[in-house]
Design a protein that fits this description.
By secondary structure, the chain is an alpha+beta fold. The protein has helices at residues 45-55, 62-72, 79-93, 96-110, 115-127, 130-135, 142-157, 161-181, 185-196, 202-214, 259-267, 284-296, and strands at residues 219-221, 236-238, 244-249, 272-277.
C-alpha cells in the first residue's frame, strides 16, 4: 500500500507552521513572507545591481519619504548593522567600476539646474539649528580651532602655484555667480556693512535724539547694516507699522548723490522715503515740520 506522503514535498517548519530559513540554519524567519532570516540572505554585487536597475527612475513621493522618516525616527541603528554597512562600503570601494559610476552620478547631479540652490537652502536650514552647529564643530573650542588651523596650514604648504591659481579662480567665479544671481547679495552686503559700521556718527546721533524727543518709540536707527532693504541699508525705519524710511545725507559724502535715486530704490519694495540733509540740522523745527508734512501727506 502506497504512503499518503509519497511524491509530496515536506517542509521543515520548526513547529511554527512556516518554512525555515533557506540558508539551512534551521531557524524561522521573523517575516512571514521572507525566505531568509535577517542577515542570512546572500548579498552579492550582481543581486544589488539587479535591485538598483529595477528601482532606477522610480521617484519616491513626499508621503513615502515622510513615512520612512517617521518609521526610523528614534530607532538607532544597531552596531551589528553599522559593521555590515562598513564592510559593504569597504567592498564597494575596492571596485573601480563602482567608484566610476558614483563619480559620474555626482557630476550629473551637479549639472542639473537648481542643484546648488537646493544644497545651499538645505545647509541654511540645517545649520539654523544650534544643536547641528555644535555637532558639526561650528561652536569650536580653542583646542579644536588650533588643531584645524594647523591641519589647514599643512595642507596649504603642499600646494603648488597652479593649485593656488585654480583655487583663486574657483572662489572668484563662485562669488561672481552668487552676486549676479542676487540670491546671496543681501547676505554679502549684510556681512560687509555689519563688519564696518556698528554705531551712528555724531550727526546721525543728533538726528536720532531729535526723532526720539519728538516721536518717542517711533523711529529706529538701522544704519549699522543690520537691516538691508533692496540692497541698501536705511538709516531710520518706522516701528509703528508704517513702511516709512528716513535717510540722512551728509553734505560731503553725498554731495554727488541724487536723493530721488534712493527714494526710488526703496519705493520698489513699497517704502516711502524722506531724505534729510546734514545742513538741515541747523534748523530742528523745520526738520520736524518737514517730517510732519511728509508723514501726513
Amino acid at each position: 500500500m502506497a504512503s499518503p506522503l509519497e511524491g509530496k514535498v515536506i517542509l521543515i517548519t520548526g513547529g511554527t507552521g512556516r518554512r525555515t530559513c533557506s540558508c539551512g540554519c534551521g531557524q524561522t524567519p521573523k517575516l512571514e513572507n521572507s525566505k531568509y532570516c535577517q542577515g542570512h540572505s546572500p548579498i552579492t554585487l550582481e543581486r544589488n545591481s539587479k535591485i538598483s536597475h529595477s528601482l532606477k527612475g522610480r521617484i519616491r513621493t513626499p508621503e513615502h519619504c515622510l513615512a520612512i522618516s517617521l518609521a526610523k525616527k528614534g530607532k538607532p541603528q544597531p552596531n551589528s548593522q553599522k559593521e555590515k554597512v562598513r564592510q559593504r562600503m569597504i567592498f564597494l570601494a575596492s571596485d573601480p567600476s563602482y567608484i566610476k559610476s558614483v563619480r559620474e552620478g555626482v557630476i550629473r547631479a551637479q549639472q542639473k539646474p537648481g542643484y546648488w540652490e537646493k544644497v545651499s537652502l538645505g545647509l541654511d536650514r540645517h545649520y539654523s539649528i544650534p544643536e547641528n552647529r555644535k555637532k558639526h564643530g561650528h561652536e569650536q573650542t580653542p583646542e579644536k580651532r588650533e588643531k584645524n588651523r594647523l591641519a589647514q596650514r599643512n595642507r596649504y604648504n603642499k600646494w603648488t602655484d597652479e593649485d593656488w591659481f585654480r583655487y583663486r579662480n574657483t572662489c572668484s567665479n563662485s562669488a561672481r555667480q552668487s552676486w549676479k544671481s542676487g540670491r546671496d547679495r543681501s547676505y554679502l552686503i549684510y556681512n560687509l556693512i555689519g563688519a564696518t559700521i556698528n554705531r551712528p556718527n555724531k550727526k546721525e546721533e543728533e538726528l536720532q535724539n531729535l526723532l526720539n524727543t519728538a516721536f518717542p518709540d517711533e523711529w529706529k536707527y538701522t544704519g549699522n547694516g543690520k537691516t538691508i532693504i533692496n540692497g541698501k541699508r536705511p538709516d531710520f525705519i518706522n516701528t509703528n507699522g508704517k513702511r516709512a524710511i528716513i535717510e540722512f545725507f551728509g553734505d560731503y559724502w553725498h554731495r554727488n548723490d541724487n536723493p530721488q535715486d534712493r527714494i526710488d530704490i526703496f519705493q520698489e519694495v513699497g517704502y516711502s522715503t524722506l531724505v534729510i540733509w546734514e545742513h538741515e540740522l541747523k534748523f530742528p523745527n523745520k526738520i520736524l515740520e518737514k517730517i510732519g508734512e511728509w508723514a501726513n501727506g
